[in-house]
């Protein structure tokens, strides 16, 4: 017995040494993926850029499902024509749809594939009950304390202004790009982009115009992004989650009086179905864009975290468990389940015969609308519940994952590092939807990124109260787009 125990102990010890050995080797081989780029000395940004952004923020280019104010959009049009005369006169304006704007900046070399920058002119409305909570008015276009305040500052007018500022400046220097560059500024991104971006994408498809890469909004440069990482993290969205809203219906042939209720009411049946979905979330997976994120940031982290991320073969379970605790990190490793609407009942003393709920799913790349529906059905496992996609709400499959070794990713990374040498660059998963989803058949390489450095606090102002951008971020953004145009034409 003693002998057996001794052998077992030696085996365990030996196994431990092997595991430790693999961990050390993998950690040592887990080297930085940042590229050695010399920072460039900051170029002077055009005088008055902040005022022009402020002017754009005074225009309430709101899009909602009940309509858009075309007047606000035509005022933005006028502003662009007046403030960016070289862009207006030297670029071709393609009238695909009346309000969305498409510009074509012809390049010298027709053999090079064009590139496309997407942004959107529209903004979400300001909730009535939050108007007086803004420090500066939402459509006041005020400049104060180093910030330009207003709805659209982060999402997404600063991008439009930055692209125009960089272009106007380059045009004034006599610059002619090597490859053709397109800009497309949609007008209905916040309500799905069906009449804007979608039609522009259809136009490109009809003309058989395909792109080397496409850049849209999506992720940003985040301060204090993760424990174990001290530098700000520039995340380039290389994939985007899918979108599906399912409707659950529970029906009974008879309702009856609440004084003699049946054992199972429709409300009870439906509630149990929702509870089952919440109790059994989709499995977390460190794959695709999220795996690429950890491969990029892991080598830059403190030794403990570096060892953990270098050895996902062993540590994936622990990391998965940790990431699942916080909604924002849970969303990058799984398809999320969000019950958003529930409806039933007419009167307190009548048993209802039907109850329905809407559950919104954001689908992880690698999964699909069909696989989500199949799993939901299996988890609910109740014949009394019918499960159908909610009518009138669009669905989107998750995107594919764009590469990091591509021309597009490389020039975006280079441009970020030239302008903001202190930041780390990594690919990541975008959990929201962008207009870029309409352009998936026009390129393999879609990236989603804005170069603004923000805190977690700032993220809450997206679609929220006190949306604003610092003048420093505006300057970085203009410099970033200037470098990106130049680098894309080398
Ligand atoms: Zn946006």
Summarize the structure.
With 490 residues, this protein is α+β, with helices and mostly antiparallel strands. It folds into two domains: 49-239 and 401-488, Aminopeptidase (3-Layer(aba) Sandwich); 240-389, Alpha-Beta Plaits (2-Layer Sandwich), CATH 3.30.70.360.
Q: Give the N-to-C terminal Cα separation.
A: 73 Å
Number of domains: 2
Cα-based radius of gyration, to the nearest Å: 26 Å
CATH topology of the largest domain: Aminopeptidase
Just give the CATH class of the largest domain. Answer: Alpha Beta
Give the name of the CATH architecture of the largest domain: 3-Layer(aba) Sandwich
Q: Which superfamily, in CATH terms, is the homologous superfamily of the largest domain? A: Zn peptidases
Please report the number of helical segments: 15
Number of strands: 17
Secondary structural class: alpha+beta
Largest sheet: 8 strands, mixed
């Amino acid at each position: 017995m003693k002998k057996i125990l001794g052998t077992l102990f030696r085996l365990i010890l030996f196994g431990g040494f092997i595991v430790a050995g693999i961990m050390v080797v993998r950690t040592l081989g887990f080297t930085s993926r940042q590229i050695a780029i010399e920072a460039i000395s900051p170029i002077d940004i055009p005088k008055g850029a902040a005022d022009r952004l402020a002017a754009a923020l005074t225009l309430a280019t709101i899009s909602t499902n009940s309509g858009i104010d075309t007047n606000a959009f035509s005022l933005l049009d006028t502003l662009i024509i007046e403030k960016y005369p070289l862009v207006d006169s030297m670029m071709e304006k393609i009238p695909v749809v009346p309000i969305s704007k498409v510009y074509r900046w012809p390049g010298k070399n027709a053999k090079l594939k064009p590139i496309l920058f997407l942004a959107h002119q529209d903004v979400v409305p300001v909730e009535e009950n939050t108007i007086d909570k803004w420090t500066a008015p939402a459509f006041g276009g005020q400049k104060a304390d180093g910030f330009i305040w207003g709805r659209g500052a982060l999402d997404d007018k600063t991008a439009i202004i930055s692209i125009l500022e960089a272009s106007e400046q380059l045009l004034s220097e006599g610059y002619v790009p090597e490859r053709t560059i397109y800009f497309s500024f949609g007008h209905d991104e916040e309500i799905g982009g069906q009449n804007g971006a979608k039609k522009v994408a259809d136009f490109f498809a009809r003309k058989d115009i395909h792109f080397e890469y496409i850049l849209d909004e999506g992720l940003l440069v985040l301060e204090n992004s993760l424990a174990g990482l001290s530098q700000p993290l520039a995340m380039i969205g290389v994939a985007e989650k899918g979108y599906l809203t399912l409707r659950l219906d529970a029906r009974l042939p008879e309702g009856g009086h609440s004084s003699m209720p049946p054992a199972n009411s429709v409300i009870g049946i439906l509630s149990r179905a929702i509870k089952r979905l919440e109790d059994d979330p989709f499995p977390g997976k460190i794959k695709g864009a999220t795996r690429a994120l950890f491969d990029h940031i892991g080598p830059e982290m403190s030794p403990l975290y570096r060892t953990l991320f270098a050895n996902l073969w062993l540590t994936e379970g622990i990391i998965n468990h940790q990431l699942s605790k916080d909604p924002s990190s849970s969303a990058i490793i799984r398809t999320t389940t969000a019950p958003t609407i529930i409806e039933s009942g007419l009167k307190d003393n009548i048993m209802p015969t039907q109850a329905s709920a809407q559950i919104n799913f954001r689908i992880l790349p690698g999964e699909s609308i069909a696989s989500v529906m199949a799993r939901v059905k299996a988890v609910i496992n109740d014949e009394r519940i019918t499960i159908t996609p909610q009518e009138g709400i669009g669905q989107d499959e998750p995107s594919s994952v764009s590469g990091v070794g591509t021309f597009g990713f490389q020039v975006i990374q280079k441009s970020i590092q030239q302008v903001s040498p202190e930041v780390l660059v990594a690919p990541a998963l975008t959990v929201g939807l962008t207009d870029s989803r309409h352009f998936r058949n026009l390129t393999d390489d879609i990236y989603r990124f804005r170069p603004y450095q923000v805190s977690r606090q700032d993220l809450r102002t997206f679609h929220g109260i006190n949306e604003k951008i610092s003048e420093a971020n505006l300057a970085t953004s203009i410099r970033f787009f200037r470098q990106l145009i130049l680098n894309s034409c080398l």
